[in-house]
């Protein structure tokens, strides 16, 4: 059928053990695996480093895990055009090491050691999304293997295929339910000459976030920790000067440093990880939610809250009274009783897209919103 390695307990996807684990080393091999799986009616779940494999729901079935980590090549780096094309199994940190030699960067940071494909498939982003955007903003092309083994390319800097779909945006955050991402092209940025972090004490965090947002200092990121500590990143040739102005703006308890605080860019601890989106002004209320520890991008209005399995149902219900809240990670015993995704107004449209791209619902079945 196809070459696979022995399956171990560690290959299980949220408790669902696959029959096969396949490690293609070329796009053609990945397409051949998908084609055989299609012909045999087998379900497929893609996996990179597995750092976010516990995000989303457990698959209803998993015959084949496609491990993309041997798809780890830099295909083209057009440094003069600030564009790079890479295979999906390449670790993001390895890509940054390559780009650093030419003074460039992919301006995406992640709390976890993701592969490129995993970062795109889960739409993950870190603190600097405030200035540079998230994966969908920097992705300018994508190559995907469809459910039947067909290879679909968005083409270099052209992000629409003949059907009119913006493939980059469509596949970003799709959790492997629409196809297997095998290559991606990104817009790059020069490495900043300086990076300076301004950190405050825990007093009046909402006011300080608003002061930074309404200033002309252009921080690359504004993060907050659960004790009310606010930290901002300034980048560029005049970063130190802007940081000193930020210290003056924020007042007593603020200081500048060339190193980030220890919590910078990390998820909060807890059995359950929640992602909440709202306005920066929602920060004050979120900091008062009982039995949680908040951390995240105050400037972008995207926060993560850690909580216990016992408190999670109450916390989620409370948060959803006002703000969209997704359960990113939770113990399996909560999956049956806790709605991981919450209300989704566009669910009917998403189902139609799923039906068109994966008519037999064999790709990561049940992993995404509404059991898609």
Primary descriptors:
single chain, 372 residues, Uridine Diphospho-n-acetylenolpyruvylglucosamine Reductase, domain 3, Alpha-Beta Plaits, 8-stranded antiparallel β-sheet, 5-stranded antiparallel β-sheet, FAD-bd_PCMH, FAD-binding oxidoreductase
Fold and architecture overview:
The chain is α+β, with helices and mostly antiparallel strands and 372 residues long. Among the domains are: 74-190, Uridine Diphospho-n-acetylenolpyruvylglucosamine Reductase, domain 3, CATH 3.30.465.10; 195-257, Alpha-Beta Plaits (2-Layer Sandwich), CATH 3.30.70; 272-334, Alpha-Beta Plaits (2-Layer Sandwich), CATH 3.30.70. The chain has 12 helices and 18 strands. It has helices at residues 27-40, 92-100, 116-122, 129-132, 135-138, 167-171, 205-213, 239-250, 283-286, 312-320, 332-335, 347-357; strands spanning 20-22, 44-47, 64-67, 74-78, 83-87, 104-105, 139-145, 151-153, 180-187, 189-190, 195-199, 221-225, 230-235, 255-257, 272-277, 292-297, 302-307, 325-329. The strands form 4 sheets. It has an 8-stranded antiparallel β-sheet. It has a 5-stranded antiparallel β-sheet with strand order 4-5-9-7-8. A hairpin with a 5-residue loop joins strand 7 (139-145) and strand 8 (151-153). It is globular, with a radius of gyration of 21 Å. The two termini are 27 Å apart. Residues 158-163 have low confidence and may be disordered. It comes from Actinocorallia libanotica. This is FAD-binding oxidoreductase. InterPro entries: FAD-bd_PCMH, FAD-bd_PCMH-like_sf, FAD-bd_PCMH_sub2, FAD-linked_Oxase-like_C, Oxid_FAD_bind_N.
């Amino acid at each position: 059928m196809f070459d696979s390695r022995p399956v171990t307990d560690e290959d299980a996807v949220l408790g669902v053990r696959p029959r096969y684990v396949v490690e293609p080393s070329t796009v053609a091999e990945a397409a051949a695996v998908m084609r055989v799986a299609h012909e045999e009616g087998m379900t497929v779940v893609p996996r990179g480093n597995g750092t976010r494999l516990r995000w989303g729901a457990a698959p209803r079935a998993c015959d084949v895990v496609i491990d993309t980590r041997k798809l780890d090549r830099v295909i083209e780096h057009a440094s003069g055009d600030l564009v790079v094309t890479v295979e999906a199994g390449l670790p993001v940190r390895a890509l940054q090491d390559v780009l650093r030699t030419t003074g460039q960067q992919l301006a995406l940071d992640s709390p976890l050691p993701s592969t490129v494909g995993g970062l795109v498939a889960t739409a993950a982003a870190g603190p600097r999304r405030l200035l540079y955007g998230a994966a969908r903003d920097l992705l300018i092309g994508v190559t995907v293997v469809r459910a039947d083994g067909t290879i679909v390319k968005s083409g270099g800097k052209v992000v629409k295929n003949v059907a009119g779909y913006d493939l980059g945006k469509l596949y970003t955050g799709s959790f492997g339910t629409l196809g297997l991402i095998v290559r991606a092209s990104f817009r790059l940025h020069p490495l900043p000459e300086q990076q300076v972090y301004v950190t405050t004490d825990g007093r009046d965090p909402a006011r300080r976030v608003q002061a930074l947002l309404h200033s002309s200092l252009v921080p690359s990121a504004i993060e907050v920790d659960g004790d009310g500590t606010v930290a901002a990143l300034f980048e560029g040739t005049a970063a130190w000067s802007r940081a000193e102005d930020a210290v003056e703006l924020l007042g007593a308890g603020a200081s500048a440093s060339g190193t980030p605080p220890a919590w910078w860019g990390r998820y909060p601890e807890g059995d359950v990880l929640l992602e909440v989106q709202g306005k920066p002004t929602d920060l004050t209320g979120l900091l008062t939610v009982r039995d949680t520890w908040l951390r995240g991008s105050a400037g972008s209005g995207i926060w993560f809250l850690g909580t216990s399995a016992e408190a999670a149902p109450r916390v989620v219900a409370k948060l959803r009274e006002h703000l969209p809240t997704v359960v990113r990670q939770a113990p399996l015993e909560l999956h049956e009783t806790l709605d991981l995704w919450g209300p989704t107004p566009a669910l009917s449209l998403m189902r139609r897209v799923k039906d068109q791209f994966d008519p037999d619902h064999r790709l990561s079945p049940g992993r995404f919103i509404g059991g898609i």
